[in-house]
Batch of 4 targets.
Target 1
Amino acid sequence: MSLPRFRAWRPGAVLAQVGVCAALAALPAASAPAASAPILQSPATPAEASPQEVTPSDSVLEEHLRQMLVGKSIYLRGGYLDNNLSFNEYGGLIGHSPHGSFTLNLLQIDKLHLEKRKLQLEGVRYGLHFLGATPNEDPTKAVDRVRITPKKKIVRITIDRELVVKPKKKKSKDKDDKEQPAPPAPAATDNQTTDADEASATSGEVPTGDRGVTTTTSPAHALKLLNGAVGNVFSIGLDDRLIAGMPDFWKLYYKSVADHTNFQPTASGVLFDNNVDQKARLLSNIEAPSNEYAQTGGVAGMALYHAVIGADGKPAEIVVSRPIGFGLDENAVDTIRKAEFQPAIKDGKPVPVMLDLVVQFRIFSKRTSVEGEPESAAAPSGSILPGPYSAGHQ
């Protein structure tokens, strides 16, 4: 029985990080973010702000975050694979986590709770399994999502919030000796940060002990920081920033999809197999390893890659043509890079040529660790490239 098909967003029609932040600061209209009044109205001056003024609006903010995130399929930036993740108020990871492909980082958020000091989310993780689109089909839509979080397990994510505090007051020296409000305080007081600090906090992992959450007297600043943190942690769809952080073989794939064109090598002088006198030849086997997620999810099948084989016989540019997902394409590309080829010959000289390479992924027996036949039958005889499939999910 096949799993529900996940319809991935087109790269050219998705929200960028700026759009995510702007959407979180606007009231929703249906399921899409709308440009309207901010959820949390900031006071006229920082001196007028107080935690009491912010607290009633937290319920509105929480409801909007729930509408934006709960029940939606969103990507976790950074490829973090741990099931318990904590982020600082800028969206930088606290501690360490193993990394993986974006195809292993699709989340569905089921629960959300906004507290004074943090945003807590719970959900499950899914892997993307590309099914193999027909020539006239959008390949980004021929995708299944397969749950990889075990049953009765959840993914927990915590994002720190900047703490809103009362501005400090000082006594006046006038005759009445009355208390007067202090001059407006800067946005961040106790733990004031610079732009460089903020960039550093979001660029990598933060030591677990360094959890000095910043404070502010401005609710508007705290909301802006929370918006930015959510945008740094999650991507609603495949936005430009998420794609920009992918390896080149994925970037080129999504560029070809967006442009509705076939991949063209970026280097000049690359020939095709039918334009050479002697074709390039593979001298070693391409046996890409599977991974625990694919084995558990029963994901197997064939994937196709374009590879430019240089005049020296070494693979240069590689791009996904028909992916399989589940982190397997990364394994395939890594294996292709290590493969040995005899270069193509044109007019008696070795020349660079582009090859199409098929990589097969199989299911292995859990008892014997030997290769097993997929439960589904292979594609009909005569098919040049059977589409990827999930064993047991046909």
Target 2
Amino acid sequence: MSTLGLIVAFTALSGFLSALAASAFLALGTARRAAVLPHLVSLATGALLGAAFLGLMPHALDTLGPGGTHAVGLALLTGILTFFLLEKFVLWRHCHDDPCEMHSPSHAARDAASARMILMGDGFHNVLDGVLVAAAFMTDTRLGIVTAAAVFAHEIPQEVGDLAILLHGGLSRRRALALNLLTSLTSVVGGVAAYFALGAALHLLPYALAFAASSFIYVAVADLIPGLHRRVDLRAGLEQVVFIGLGVALVYFTHQHAH
């Protein structure tokens, strides 16, 4: 098989299998999903923060080198401000169609905006995963296979968290599964684009990684954590801390195992 064929096959397989693993959540009954969903939102918070600070940002800094630290920081800040403006636009559109109270969009509007934000951020992240897989395959076939396997392992906790956010944002199970699968397969786009324009893609990769990290940081800090604060009892707080820590740990250990 040609290098391009390998890139397409392995990016598609990795995206499909990670989404399939996450979709096992849909097999649970309605009552069980309602009980598990708050824990998955906490898990998603930890996974998003872990992916941003333990995976994307270190990789961005390592790829660029110490001389570009400020540039990567600027890309991160630009991304956070960009996603703030995007969410403002999404909320404005929601309130335009379904009037909200002045200065106080409903919790449902916030959750729906979070779902849209995570789709954009995860799609962008998966495009970058495709770039990395393509770069590895263009270096060595065995390295490409190992990299694709590492991306798959890293994406499982992320995809579970994304699916939880989509359901929390009011999407039906079928629509959430379809959109989650679609964003997972955007890695194919990144892989094909990198194959034909590898030099340009790698030159911009550190800044693109920082921008992707900003979307995860923004959704976790601005959208999910305030939602977790709606429950103020001690037991709920302890459960949230445990599952946030578990989300961070899952990303950390899959990242370490991949290396």
Target 3
Amino acid sequence: MNSRLGGPPKTPWHLWVIGAIAVFWNAFGATDYTMTQLGNIEWITSMGFDEATAKTMLDLLGAAPAWADAAWALGVWGGLAGALLLLARSRFAIFAFAASIVGVIGSMVYQAGADYPPELAEMGNSPMMYIVLSIAVLLLAYSVWVQRSGVLK
């Protein structure tokens, strides 16, 4: 049945494109979170940090309070779940993306107040966090829009 006859609307092409990009974007965040939690120094050095700075970064992240680590996890895994749920055309993508935003904001609060050494000072107010937050908000807004269009179940 198609939407003209009263059935569910056809999945628009842009959902597949945005959903696939969202999965790749959030999979990178999940990989970063996992590699950092595992203390993978090679992962950190592959981003351009020397080994000493990478070790300092891992030590600082390892010493973060549980709430900050939980916020990071919520941001990362909420985003990945939202992207996968979007591709599955599930209305629960909205809740997952909203949870991701809460996690990103929590991470930003922690990073803004943390005491970083000079070589990692940019972590405290990283422009990347604003990019991450903006993308999370856009994915939530897109999910709400396609939900209202009847595309998400």
Target 4
Amino acid sequence: MGLTYLVYPGAHHTRFHHALGCMHLMTKAIQVLRFKNVTISEEESTALLLAILLHDIGHGPFSHAMEHSIVEGITHEEISLKFMNALNEEFDGGLSLAIKIFKGDYHRNFFNQLISSQIDMDRSDYLKRDSFYTGVAEGNVNSERLITMLNVVDEELVIEEKGIYSVEKFLLARRLMYWQVYLHKTSLVAESLLVKVLKRAKELVQKGIMVDASSPFDYFLQNQINDTNFGDKELEIFSKLDDYDLVSAMKSWMGHDDVVLSNLSKMIIDRNLLKIELTKNEISLTDFNLIQLKTKEKYSLSDNEVAYFVFKSTVSNQAYDSDKEGIKILLKGGDVVDATEASDHLNLKTLSMPVKKYFVCYPKEL
């Protein structure tokens, strides 16, 4: 959940919770499909459970906030695959089928859909879990009902027609959770500051200025690691990183001589963040430049330094992407159609339209 606990104090649950929850839901999904005469061997069942247990193991500290920051140009899915390959060697090929399913290379497509699709075990767990821990009731999806409605047609995952209302609720819950939790404006500014802190620390290290950090964290500050040089050594060091490395470093950086690093660190640790405005329309370049100018003058900052305190970006929310592999509904007559066709709910077509918003951050004093 990154820094979401700054908004919702209960959001301290970990990705380990989520991985176990996904595995639990996968166990139920396998039972339901077997009950409906879908053949799943013991080897396939074990592989599915391994794949879902490890699907997020490549996430670094503070989850999505730090993706492409500590390590550049490589996704958490790619790092997850590196971990799975390393474990596969350790367990003498015991994860080979799990890796095949995770990559989407297995001939039975619904296996991968259970792990990564628009109505998979991953989303079924995190929406309900995050709703519970944040207290945002709108995200409380009926995972049990959705799993009970699962079936397979021509090796493709489908939802039986009587489960269409649960699908509608699921998609609506996802839309609301993104605006109320994942893309909450305080979360956006806090996570943006976290990325800026790391960027500044790396910038100082490259100039030969010392910044305190744990040994694993220091390795990634000292070296530019990307998809081309992320090897076994880097994987081993990456596995030792967690949220505590970053929090401990920021506590130390609060007293650093560099005004940018120290102030950014103080903002996060003291919960005294930048002001953020989230709007439907982008701020004009004239207004943005004026804010930057005022900030430069007030705090005696250079052009490079002011960009750490005044910045803008965009966020988008699309609960259902009909252009991707959609959610298929099995009608009573045996036909399979997309969820938008099966639903009599006008909102479902609306939910498939992306909504874009703009935000600008700047010091509260301005």
